[in-house]
Amino acid sequence: MNKKNRLRRKKQNYTVREAGTSPGLVYIDENALEPVITLHQLNDKSYESKKLESLKDIAKILEDKSYTFWVDIKGFGSEEMFEILGRDLNINKLVLEDITVTYQRPKVEEYDGYVFAVSRMLLLDEDKHLDNSQLSFILTDNALFTFKESYSDCLEPVRQRLKAGKGNIRTAGSSYIMYAIMDIIVDTYFEILGTWSEELDEIEDRLLDKPDKSIMYDTQLIKRNLINIRRVSWPERDKLNDILRSDSPLITDQTKLYIRDAYDHCIQIIDIVESLKEISASNIDMYLSLISNRMNEIMKVLTIISSIFIPLTFIAGIYGMNFADRDPVSGKLMPENMPELYEPHGYLYTMLIMGLIAVLQVIYFWRRGWFK
Amino acid sequence: MNKKNRLRRKKQNYTVREAGTSPGLVYIDENALEPVITLHQLNDKSYESKKLESLKDIAKILEDKSYTFWVDIKGFGSEEMFEILGRDLNINKLVLEDITVTYQRPKVEEYDGYVFAVSRMLLLDEDKHLDNSQLSFILTDNALFTFKESYSDCLEPVRQRLKAGKGNIRTAGSSYIMYAIMDIIVDTYFEILGTWSEELDEIEDRLLDKPDKSIMYDTQLIKRNLINIRRVSWPERDKLNDILRSDSPLITDQTKLYIRDAYDHCIQIIDIVESLKEISASNIDMYLSLISNRMNEIMKVLTIISSIFIPLTFIAGIYGMNFADRDPVSGKLMPENMPELYEPHGYLYTMLIMGLIAVLQVIYFWRRGWFK
Amino acid sequence: MNKKNRLRRKKQNYTVREAGTSPGLVYIDENALEPVITLHQLNDKSYESKKLESLKDIAKILEDKSYTFWVDIKGFGSEEMFEILGRDLNINKLVLEDITVTYQRPKVEEYDGYVFAVSRMLLLDEDKHLDNSQLSFILTDNALFTFKESYSDCLEPVRQRLKAGKGNIRTAGSSYIMYAIMDIIVDTYFEILGTWSEELDEIEDRLLDKPDKSIMYDTQLIKRNLINIRRVSWPERDKLNDILRSDSPLITDQTKLYIRDAYDHCIQIIDIVESLKEISASNIDMYLSLISNRMNEIMKVLTIISSIFIPLTFIAGIYGMNFADRDPVSGKLMPENMPELYEPHGYLYTMLIMGLIAVLQVIYFWRRGWFK
Amino acid sequence: MNKKNRLRRKKQNYTVREAGTSPGLVYIDENALEPVITLHQLNDKSYESKKLESLKDIAKILEDKSYTFWVDIKGFGSEEMFEILGRDLNINKLVLEDITVTYQRPKVEEYDGYVFAVSRMLLLDEDKHLDNSQLSFILTDNALFTFKESYSDCLEPVRQRLKAGKGNIRTAGSSYIMYAIMDIIVDTYFEILGTWSEELDEIEDRLLDKPDKSIMYDTQLIKRNLINIRRVSWPERDKLNDILRSDSPLITDQTKLYIRDAYDHCIQIIDIVESLKEISASNIDMYLSLISNRMNEIMKVLTIISSIFIPLTFIAGIYGMNFADRDPVSGKLMPENMPELYEPHGYLYTMLIMGLIAVLQVIYFWRRGWFK
Amino acid sequence: MNKKNRLRRKKQNYTVREAGTSPGLVYIDENALEPVITLHQLNDKSYESKKLESLKDIAKILEDKSYTFWVDIKGFGSEEMFEILGRDLNINKLVLEDITVTYQRPKVEEYDGYVFAVSRMLLLDEDKHLDNSQLSFILTDNALFTFKESYSDCLEPVRQRLKAGKGNIRTAGSSYIMYAIMDIIVDTYFEILGTWSEELDEIEDRLLDKPDKSIMYDTQLIKRNLINIRRVSWPERDKLNDILRSDSPLITDQTKLYIRDAYDHCIQIIDIVESLKEISASNIDMYLSLISNRMNEIMKVLTIISSIFIPLTFIAGIYGMNFADRDPVSGKLMPENMPELYEPHGYLYTMLIMGLIAVLQVIYFWRRGWFK
Predict the structure, then answer these.
(1) Looking at the domain assignment, is residue D107 inside a domain?
(2) Could you list the residue ranges that cross the membrane (chains A, B, C, D, E) (predicted)?
(3) Which residues from chain A sit within 8 angstroms of residue B254, using beta carbons?
(4) Are A14 and B193 within 8 A, CB to CB?
(5) pLDDT digits over E218-248, tens only?
(6) Are the beta carbons of E317 and D322 separated by less than 8 Å?
(7) C240, C248, D172, E111: which could form a disulfide with D176 (CB 3.0–4.6 Å)?
(8) Is residue C372 classed exposed, middle or buried when 0-12, 13-18 and 19+ CB atoms within 10 A define those classes?
(9) Does residue D52 share a domain with residue D182?
């Protein structure tokens, strides 16, 4: 029941842009969340994080090149915000559209003065339901903007590392922060695959113990999720590869060294997805063969019992027939009618014959291996 | 029933050019529709749309380079029209053939002075039947011709945007209008896929609630449609890529920027088609496993009831046998024949034994998990 | 029955060259048909077609460069003919071998002074049996030779066009005639696929109306034919592509423009073949699910009837037992033996109980949806 | 039975080099066969073939550049032989290892002064068991060495052609002899595929006439063999392609022209293998559908007979019940107990009712098409 | 049972790096094993092998360029060790991370002054459980470091060859030792595949003799292992190819010659894996068809016996009915009620009719081939 609901709640993430709308016009849904803007300002010495009311002064803030900035924007409910980005930071309209129409594939595009990138952030909620949301990046020389439609994310560890100042996250510039976020997103894929891998193991255990219908539901559920994650990880791989081969000055060679690592991880993700898909296919095969096997066993029971008792019942039926021993009118004896009934040991013989038939059949079925 | 008809009405779109006809000769079917020619004349200041009787003066009209023109031609029932295009606008015969033989794959071909392109327009009629028609483009420096065999189309939003003058549709030249049309066609694919995605979800719900034969029909129907849309979207993707890499001066760099967007959409279409195909395959798997499961359950009922009652009936049959207690002639007692029948509590004991057998079988089946 | 024979008659077209024969030696089977040589001689003004006895004077005839020649050779039963080709026209031995060993893949090979090409001509005979034969081409500057082992072909429309002189078939040179023939061969594929597409539609209708075993046979038959046509069309595509990219002066740029069209057609063929293969696979899936469904229905009938009547028969059997009401010797009453039989309304009550059991079972099966 | 054994006898050809042995050390098994060395010495005028005791003088023999030599070595039971090859002819140790460890894929490798190549020779023994052995080539400027572990081969036709001197086999140099051998090996693949193609046809006929379990065994057997031949033909194709693109002076342009032919053949082999694989898959599909169909028919018979007779037997059972017509003690009549039994025409009516039920059921099953 | 446990014990090797950790920081698990460091010091004259306490003096040791060193490190339980590597040998932090996070794909990466490579070592324990561990390499000009998390490995033969000094293992430098180790790892794959190939053969034998459920379990187990080995061998192939094409001076041309050999082996591994996968798929097909066949046979037995005896039992039931021959009250004869019972030979005739029915049914089933 629970399973059914989980399967049912899963919605395809195929949001559809209304056909025929003019491209490059930012469309803000009336249900869009109030934007929450967090500014992280850091260099090798200091780190500060504060909430911004709006992006009004952002161009001025970014002029201080002695800092690296991460502007973390969640919620799109302000048309003005996007206007500022277009006007003050000179972001192309198509980019702003791609940020707000949150069904882009992972990709990277180089523009004059900035780089635009999209990652798909996968989160597994407490019901193991896969939430697939878009994180968009705008990378400038000293700042990284990230955009997300909803408030939840998986970037807490990055914020912790910024605060702690461990590693070179504070000193390696904005592109390194972008790497750190992209890397954590890919790492989350590992965790999700780990969950499913365990669930597949658990399904397999159930397959061996007591296979039932839920195995089919659960495996299909995992298969769907694997289809979704694969749809995400292939273009993610291409995106990381594009970044690796990009010659934009905004992406430092040091960052590329790390991106290569994330690229390796992404290939591993794809490997694992393919393996898990094969494993779930083979679980389904096994399940179907178990159903067939069980059917065979059910039929064997039916056939053995029917084959033994139906002929015996027939014999009993014969001696239950009422052929008269005397003519009802004349009262003359008709001894030739069913003489067995008047044999002194007729009953005994009949029972022995029945027993013999039963034994022969049991031997026959035994030989065919039906009792194994 | 309804489903059956829908499946039956679907026709393969494999129109066949008569083998052996000379290439490049325009062939007008006698059932061809009367052409309806609409001329859209626009620049940054004005926009006008009017019906043309014929293309006679089109060469002269197009000479006014201060305007961008969109000549929207529907219905091919005039041989003269194609002759004018060949003569006055110098369009290659092969191109004219490709326009009229409406089973081309999406493609783009550059000729001297113009670009020829083909899109496949997919429309879903009220019966959810997929209508696959061809829209051909001829793009010159200041004009776009579109050709469609029938009157219905999905371009109303483009006409609205031309009228409204929003965005840069009026000022960005003829290639931008071509982009706008191509983009809307691809966006229609999204809508259609959305319909099918919902239908697959609905099928899945039915799978979980009350699976019946119609699931198979409906899924196959969707699969067919997916096959058709995939046949269209792969070459569409190639076409858009060819436009991106084209160095024809007729396609502006600005337009290419937008075409890149349409190209991204087209890749997403392909992604979604593949995902939906996998989902429908997995629905069929699930359905087949449900049939097998149901079969198992039917057989279990039959086997349990038969296995319990057939042996009991046999026992009842034994004590229904008429072995005589006296010799019919001599009248001598034959007490050894079926002495159980004369036991004071024979009936009771028999019933108890029968009950015991039934209970043992129930326990046996319980243990094997057949009651679960 | 008819179907079976059709399936049986189909022969694999895997003719085998005898292993170890010396390459380049023309091998003429003794059953080879008498050659029929037709010379078509044409230019923009005149057209003549005549039968030739042999190729003896062919070198001299071809010297007249003011004409384009098509030498149409059918039947290989003359070793002398091939010797003349080797000696007078300087054709490589390997080429002559490839002409006579008629199981080549479509291909094109450039030699000094001529181009050698192979097409596979598919014909559907009246029994819808696929005949797969080889048409070989030798293209020189002003002549085209075609070679076919048997007399039947699908080139009549080309001959008609030559006679009629429509289009540029008379003036565009020998390579254009080669194109015209190759194009008509590919067009024939369309017609054949059209036939199969219709047959698949008809099979699908039968699937929905009254599925029977013949569906499997017919679909397999079509699948086989599709496998054959795919084996032919992939290399055909490669061949046309090779011609497109060829820089041989024998193939004019104008011809290449047309070849591009044939290439497009060939890609469409491949698309259609793949689609039809998927459709036939999905027909088979549907058929198998229908068999399973039908099995379920059969089993339901059996189970419902058995489950209702077997227990009732058991009850009837109980009251058919002959437990004695009196001791046969003493004649003493044994009222405790089957007292129900002596109940005034025992029969009525029994019938009521039986009816109740039956009704309960019907309700049970109804609830499980077995009557739907 | 015979089939089973054939299937069982088949051994995987996955010989395993002992892990960790030093590479390049020739390892001679103690069971290795005594080497049989045949020297073929030929030029345009003469041909001689003689057995050699050992390779001691081989370097000196090969110095006579007016001859072409083919040194045909079978059996590896002489370590000295390989030492001579290494020392006198300067053959790399890794090459010698590859010759003796006979599980190489087809490949070609160019070394200083010689070319090393490997072909897989497939032979079909009288039990249609596939024997997959390695033939290694060392090609020098005027000599060809071939190495085979066992004595049997398929090269007799090449020896015949050398003796007969037909074609250019004697004059075209050592690389042409290598081609001739490689070509005959590929041609043998055709013969083997021909055998299997016929067997598949024969299986198909059996499928249509009387399908039984052996169809599954036989098809699997063919599938296995197809897997093996495909494993061989893909690298064979690559090898021939490598030779075509090789710029080694040892391989003449003339030979390359012929190799192109062998390459075409190899592609055809791959085509045929794929087609045969699809055909055997479709045979298995058909077989499985036939099993399901047969099951349906068996179940129909059971269900029809059970459904008709079980209810009738129940009715008979009712009137076989012994409800008493008189109280055993008081002797009072109990006419309400089973009054039907005392109806004058009770038996007749009962039989008519039974007949009616049977007829209704037959009509029901007829309508559902179960008698078709 | 044993099988079940083996299947159950198998764990996915998808270790997961904790998301969000800073890259390039070496993370040492508290359960990490105490490092065991073995230094092999060799040149053409001498060979010495000794245990090292720590890596403290390693930089000094390596300064002696007259020796080649192999530093074999097992167990990662010392953070200091990695610090030394980073500080004294200048190894990049990301490399050290990749060494310790042991779920890398096989890869090779060139750094300044050294080459980093990863191999996956597969070991089959006594329960045929596949152990997949990582062996990392750092190759410098005169030294090779290998890193393994646990103590067991398959490198004993390499150590033996170093000791024995056979071949050129002592003189060919550090890259040759790396090759020797990589080669032995790939060779181990062959051994493992050999084991599974044999097991598949054994499963196939069981399929032919007495197919049971364990076939499914065992085949799935092998399939899983094949999935794992394929996941390892594809990137292994890419890695070896990368080494072949590398232009690092650390990898000598001589070594590359040998690597080409290992590369060939790796391609063979992939071939074999694919073949074994197809074979196990075809085993499963065969098994499923056998289950279906067996089902058919079970059903045939049931149907034959039921069809014969159910109608006969019905007839017996008819003559077991108690239609009275006299009116219980009036005592009047009712001879029309069941006159057959009073036929002198009624019983005989009945038995003959029953026998006839049985014989007709047997003939019917015989004709349908059910006794075959």
Answers:
(1) yes
(2) 301-321, 347-366
(3) none
(4) yes
(5) 898 899 889 889 989 999 999 999 999 998 9
(6) no
(7) D172
(8) exposed
(9) yes
pLDDT digits (tens, 9 = 90+) for A126-169: 778 888 899 999 999 999 999 999 998 899 889 988 888 777 78
Clarify whether residues E324 and E280 are in a common domain.
no
Q: Do A231 and B369 touch (CB under 8 A)?
A: no
| B302 and B251 in a common domain | no
Which one of E189, E321, E360 makes the best mutation probe of the D interface by having the most chain D beta carbons within 10 Å? E321
Sign of CA dihedral A339, A341, A346, A352: positive
Can you list the pairs that E9-12 forms with residues at least 24 positions away whose Cβ atoms lie under 8 Å? E9/E127, E9/E129, E10/E129, E10/E130, E10/E221, E10/E224, E11/A201, E12/A197, E12/A200, E12/A201
Q: Does C7 score more than 80 pLDDT?
A: no
Q: One-letter amino acid identity for A121?
A: M
CATH of the domain at C345: 1.20.58.340
Judge residue E243's burial from the number of C-beta atoms within 10 Å of its C-beta, 0-12 exposed, 13-18 middle, 19 or more buried.
buried
A344 touches chain B (CB under 8 A): yes
State how beta strands D68-74 and D143-148 pair: parallel
Which of E27, E313, E333 has the most A C-beta neighbours within 10 Å, making it the best mutation to test the interface with A?
Answer: E313
The nearest CA of chain A is from the CA of E355 a distance in Å of 12
Residue E12 in contact with partner chain A when CB distance is under 8 A: yes
pTM metric for this prediction: 0.81
Residue of A nearest to B197 (CA): A12
- Sole residue written with tokens 């995400």: A232
Choose among C11, C24, C224: nearest Cβ to D167.
C24
Question: Same structural domain for residues B142 and B260?
Answer: yes
**E307/E198 same-domain check:** no
Q: Note whether B154 and B64 are same-domain residues.
A: yes
Strands (DSSP E) found in chain D: 36-42, 47-52, 68-74, 107-111, 114-124, 130-139, 143-148
Q: How far apart are CA D50 and CA D68, in angstroms?
A: 14
Q: Which of these three, D242, D268, D290, is where a domain ends?
A: D290
Neighbouring C-beta atoms of residue B371, cutoff 10 Å: 10
Place of tokens 């979704």: A228
Yes or no, beta carbons of D322 and C321 under 8 Å apart:
yes
Backbone angles phi, psi at B297, to 5 degrees: -70, -40
Number of domains into which chain D is organized: 2
Q: Which residues pair with C110 in a beta bridge?
A: C115
How far apart are the C-alpha atoms of E223 and E274, rounded to whole Å?
11
Q: How many CB atoms lie within 10 A of CB D29?
A: 10
* Residue written as token pair 């994080």: A49
Minimum-distance CB partner of C107 among D264, D302, D369: D264
Last residue of a domain, one of E290, E322, E346: E290
B325, B337 Cβ separation under 8 angstroms: yes
Q: CA B13, CA C154: separation in Å to the nearest integer?
A: 24
Nearest Cβ partner of D22 from E161, E201, E268? E161
Looking at the fold, whether D224 and D354 belong to one and the same domain comes out as: no
Which residues span the domain enclosing A356? 295-367
